Amino acid sequence: MVNLLDLDQELLTSFFVSLGEKPFRATQVLKWIHQLGIVDFDAMTNLSKALRQRLKENACISMPQIVMSQTSLDGTRKWLVQLDSNNSIEMVFIPEDDRGTLCVSSQVGCALNCRFCATAQQGFNRNLTTGEIIAQLWLAEQTLQAEIASLPPSSKEETQPINSSQTPFLSNGGTKEENSSLQKGKQVIRNVVFMGMGEPLTNFNNVCKAMNLMLNDFAYGLSKRRVSLSTVGIVPALLRLKEQSSVNIAISLHAPNDTLRDQLLPINKKYPLRELIAACHTLIKGEKHRQITFEYVMLKEINDSPAHAKALVKLLRGLPAKINLIPFNIFPQTDYQCATPETIERFRDILLAAGFVTITRKNRGDDIDAACGQLAGKVLDKKR
Fold first, then answer.
1. Is 110 a residue of the active site?
2. pLDDT of residue 384
3. CATH 2.40.50.140 at 65-368, yes or no
4. Would you call 178 a catalytic residue per the annotation?
């Protein structure tokens, strides 16, 4: 039986054609599932009764389940999503004044063994299906919309901003304009980042199909600039992605030379920096306004010296780059420590002086282990 969550518009169209139906049925069903949150075929009232019956016989909409929810002091939400009896993943919602960002996972665990990442220490089980990836967005959006709908009626119009004291997922209050993405009837999640569990480019096809749904106007209608894929730099897949999608790319760099990067990210031995940086130049070729984000976790006395900052400037010179400095988030069984705020500031100033847009990322959700590098879930490790 076909799980319709696994199908982007192209595949869903082919499915309906195989049933002898017109192609436009695909857009109708996309809207029902992804825009209206309807997963009961009988409730899809603009489909004929005969077609609804055929769908029940030939297809399903199989959804994983949220089994635990945690809320940080800063309003960040983390959900544990059960996939099967042995495996679960985590996803994180980060509320902002003007948007909501969902961090999704692409694999159960991760096989790349980056030394400073909690996910990597869990081992690896399998890739997520397209349906399991897009279900994270569906579940988060529907959960948040239900919470908005449950708020007590206001004396003001329904479109007035929601008071943060009444709503568990808003981090702070704000004007109507600031909270415009968090109003009743509005889509809550405006940004999606593939920065959860797993390496997205080693699950290439399923990730691309899920991104197609995120960008599709009949599904979530997100701008390509509001979907970001984070990768350690699987060079062949990175170059292939240029032909498939123009979403934002974030490179998990974390070191300015091969010797150090080999230690922190073992995949660097297969795709060293010269190949990765060359691929980045290829990605932006012919795209005037495209920028690549480079993520750099700040590890005390490992990669945080002025010399490292100057080497990073030399490495990235000539690329339209934005650099995110990420304070290291502690997790059990790690010997790494976070660089001091003063060290991070000094590192940032060197990059700024060289002309790079550089931001020190604010930790969100670290009190519930929802911050960068802390996601773990439950993984039946097939590597050990």
1. no
2. 56
3. no
4. no
